[in-house]
Amino acid sequence: MTPGLWTLVIGVCLLAGLLGLTTGMIWIERRLLAQFQDRLGPNRVGPLGLFQPIADIIKLFMKEDWMPPFADKLIFVIAPGIIVVTVLLAFAVVPITPFIKVSDANVGLLFFLGMASMGVYGIVLAGWASNSKYSLIGGTRAAAQMLSYELPMGLAVVSVVMLAGSLRLSDIVNAQPRLWFCVLQPLGFVIFTIAGIAEARRTPFDLPEADSELIAGYHTEYSSMKFALFFMGEYLDIILVSAMVTVLYLGGWHGPLLPPALWFIIKMFAVIFLFVWVRAVLPRYRYDQLMTLGWKILLPLSIVNLVATGAVMLVMR
Amino acid sequence: MNAVQELQARFPDIEFTQQQTGDGIATLWLDSARLREVLSYLKSEADKPYRMLYDLAAIDERARRIPADQPECDFSVAYHLLSFDRNDDIRLKIPLRGEYPSAPSITDIWPNANWYEREVWDQFGINIENHPCLRRILNPPDWAGHPLRKEHPARATDMPGYTLTEESHQREEEGLEVDPESWGLASEGDDVEYMLLNFGPHHVGTHGLLRLILQMSGEKIDDLAVDIGWHHRGAEKMAERQSFHTYIPYTDRIDYLSGVQNNLPYLLTVEKIAGISVPDRAQVIRVLLCELFRIANHLVWFGTFASDLGAMSPVFFTFNDRERVFDVVEAITGGRMHPQWFRIGGVSADLPEGWDKLVSDFLAYFPARIDEYEQIIVRNAIFKHRTKGIGLYTTESAIEWGVTGPNLRSTGLDWDLRKKRPYSGYDQFDFEIPTATEGDSYARTVVRIEEMRQSLRIIKQAMCNMPAVPYKSDNRLAMPPRKEETMVAIETLINHFLAVSWGQPIPPGEAMISTEAPKGNYGYHLISDGSNYAYRCHIRTPSFAHLQTTPILTKGLLVSDLITILGSLDYVLADVDR
Question: The domain containing residue B147 runs over which residues?
Answer without folding.
Answer: 3-152
